[in-house]
Specification:
With 326 residues, the chain is an alpha/beta fold. It is 49% helix and 13% strand. The chain has an 8-stranded mixed beta sheet, sandwiched between helices. Bound molecules: adenosine-5'-triphosphate and magnesium ion. The site of magnesium ion has 4 residues, from helix 1.
Length: 326
């Protein structure tokens, strides 16, 4: 059986709608017949459970982080939305620290073994290495931003931090890793201003590491969502951010879609329900459903493509080969 596809939802800035987006896309997928688990990794301001109608989760990710429970299936709880389950985040007063890098990798490996078609991971704000790791190791990293200069600025710093962390983790020798760390500091003395400068320098030290760097850049395809859209100009922001990513980082981001600003979202939060469920006809629900549909269709298409390529690569079965006439 195929494992779940892991989608991380981040955005750098607080309050841009990451939780709203993760909760609703998860609910929309579940309503479309998919088995979905949404995971709240925000250990400071966990609130995904409220967004999907679970007032007081009986267990949470805290059990895993504190190593009281390593079987994630036991931390999964049902929600009022059929097909949608969650792993709740921890409450701040518990003072649970983020797990360290190798524990995060372990958590992600275990998330991949859950019985679901999709695992959506809701990230906290900021560019802490834990947030970046979750964003990077997912099959898809979705960056939510709003049409406000502060959000756009944070989106760029988030992408930049994630991008360089990815490059650094991909390097296998200490010298090139150090170079990537230096390049992260924009005012560095070595004159490494862009990823291209960095690539040139890495290639000079080691062509093999240069190849790894190129692979790592090409494998990084963040997907962008503009939330809280009120005008056509706001919608165009996604294309502008995509162009900047290409021009300054040499990376291909995809503009996945937008969600308009809609009072129904606030009403749904107050009713502790996903808006796609409480207000299915609202504009925001239409756009959120559209994005969920797109993710499902993209996956189906790539599975069909993989199955076709496997079939055409296979030698014909013995029985199908006509026997030569005797
Ligand atoms: N499209 C929208 N239309 C109207 N209100 C919205 C929309 N998206 C989000 N909101 C409101 O914005 C607020 C913040 O949303 P949310 O909690 O999802 O942000 P967040 O990015 O997860 O924040 P944090 O960084 O604190 O985790 C919520 O009150 C939510 O109802
Ligand atoms: Mg949130």
């Amino acid at each position: 059986m195929l494992g779940p596809r892991l989608i991380a939802v981040g955005g750098g800035k607080g309050g841009v709608g990451k939780t709203m987006f993760a909760a609703n896309v998860a609910a929309a997928m579940a309503r479309a017949g998919q088995r979905v688990i949404a995971v709240d990794t925000d250990l400071e301001g966990a609130n995904l459970h409220t967004a999907v109608g679970v007032p007081t989760p009986r267990v949470s990710l805290a059990e895993f982080v504190a190593r009281r429970e390593l079987d994630l299936e036991r931390l999964v709880i049902d929600t009022p939305v059929p097909g949608l389950r969650i792993i709740a985040g921890t409450q701040s007063h518990l003072g649970v620290a983020q797990p360290r890098h190798f524990r995060r990798v372990e958590l992600l490996a275990r998330l991949r073994r859950l019985a679901a078609d999709w695992v959506l991971v809701d990230l906290g704000a900021g560019t802490h290495p834990s947030v970046l790791d979750y964003f990077l190791v997912g099959d898809d990293g979705i960056l939510v931003l709003t049409p406000e200069p502060t959000s756009v600025e944070n989106a760029y710093s988030f992408l930049r931090a994630a991008f360089y962390r990815r490059l650094r983790l991909a390097m296998s020798d200490e010298a090139t890793r150090k170079l990537v760390t230096q390049a992260m500091d924009q005012g560095n003395q070595r004159g490494l201003r862009t990823p291209l400068d960095l690539l040139r320098e890495v290639r000079r030290i080691s062509p093999a590491e240069g190849e790894r760097l190129v692979d790592s850049v090409q494998g990084f395809r963040p997907r962008l969502v503009v939330n809280g859209v009120r005008s056509a100009e706001d919608i165009r922001l996604g294309f502008a951010v995509r162009s900047v990513c290409r021009k300054y980082f040499g990376l291909e981001a995809e503009y996945l879609g937008y969600v308009n600003h809609d009072d129904a979202v606030g009403e749904a939060v107050r009713a502790r329900q996903p808006v796609v469920r409480s207000h299915p006809q609202a504009d925001a629900s239409v756009y959120l459903n559209r994005i969920a549909r797109k993710l499902i269709d993209d996956r189906t298409r790539s599975q069909q493509f993989a199955a076709r390529s496997r079939a055409s690569a296979r030698p014909p079965a013995a029985a199908a080969v006509p026997r030569p006439p005797l």
